[in-house]
Specification:
274 residues, Serine Threonine Protein Phosphatase 5, Tetratricopeptide repeat, mainly alpha, single chain
């Protein structure tokens, strides 16, 4: 009796394994046989259930098998999002750029621009926190700048887009971060007595990110760097502008530069999955 039960159990296990294997083969083959609408529906269902790898496979087959039509168009942008969610930013950017080039008048073209900015934004998510204690002159800010440019393009092209308000907020965050990065570089040079380089970085902040909270510190850096260089007239000019715009700046109380960075703030987008 025990032997019979053992054989029966083994048969059940084998039957289950066979059915699972068949199911996998059916699902794999379906991508080659389903019509466009059913293939898109399967891809979208997987995407909605966060089965991103599976959705990518179906979307890739969709765009390959049906190179024209609305399902192909929507599949392209959905594929870009799925690639983004699986941490494949380069592939995702390529898919977005291809979509923008091929379908510049698509109803969701604004979303494509927004997604491109989001991909670059999260490509270096936590960027400033990770590099806080490092030499910032070695850090690569290209994706931060690119994200700022991407969101700016969305806002310029489609100011009424539903994605524009979020893009503007992210631009403010990025602008402040870029200014912080440049000031960290300026501080690095200043501590090494490279005052010309420090002044150059401070000037860049004032020219490109004058609305950032670090504009006052940039003026202070400029004033002190010129002071150390013996450029008294330039130093006095910078102090005069600083006094006019930031009369309570710590520089005038001899409490500058501060030891701790102002960037130790909560990233408002850190918990936003996008």
């Amino acid at each position: 009796m025990l032997m019979f039960r053992g054989v029966r159990l083994l048969l059940i296990v084998l039957a289950l394994s066979f059915s699972v294997g068949c199911g996998k083969r059916v699902r794999s083959e379906a991508a080659e046989t389903l019509p466009a609408d059913a293939l898109y529906a399967e891809a979208k269902r997987s995407l909605d259930h966060r089965q991103y790898d599976r959705s990518i496979k179906f979307y890739q087959r969709l765009v390959a098998r049906f190179p024209f039509g609305s399902y192909h168009e929507q599949g392209q942008i959905d594929l870009a999002y799925a690639l983004y969610k699986t941490s494949k930013p380069d592939d995702a950017i390529s898919a977005v750029n291809r979509f923008i080039k091929l379908y510049p008048t698509h109803p969701r073209i604004d979303y494509a621009y927004y997604l491109r900015g989001l991909i670059n934004f999260n490509r270096k998510n936590g960027f400033f926190a990770r590099h806080f204690s490092r030499d910032f002159t070695r850090s690569d800010l290209q994706y931060i700048r690119q994200s700022f440019q991407d969101f700016g393009e969305l806002v310029d092209r489609y100011p009424q887009s539903s994605y524009a308000p979020d893009a503007r907020q992210r631009m403010i965050f990025l602008r402040n971060g870029l200014a912080e990065g440049e000031m960290m570089v300026a501080g690095y040079y200043f501590r090494r007595h490279a005052y010309v380089a420090a002044a150059t970085r401070a000037t860049l902040v004032l020219e490109a990110y004058q609305e950032s909270p670090r504009a006052g510190d940039a003026l202070a850096m400029l004033a002190e760097s010129y002071q150390r260089l013996g450029q008294q007239q330039l130093a006095d000019d910078a102090k005069r502008v600083l006094k006019l715009n930031y009369p309570e700046h710590p520089y005038f109380a001899g409490k500058w530069p501060a030891k701790n960075s102002r960037w130790r703030q909560l990233n408002p987008f850190a918990s936003n999955k996008g």
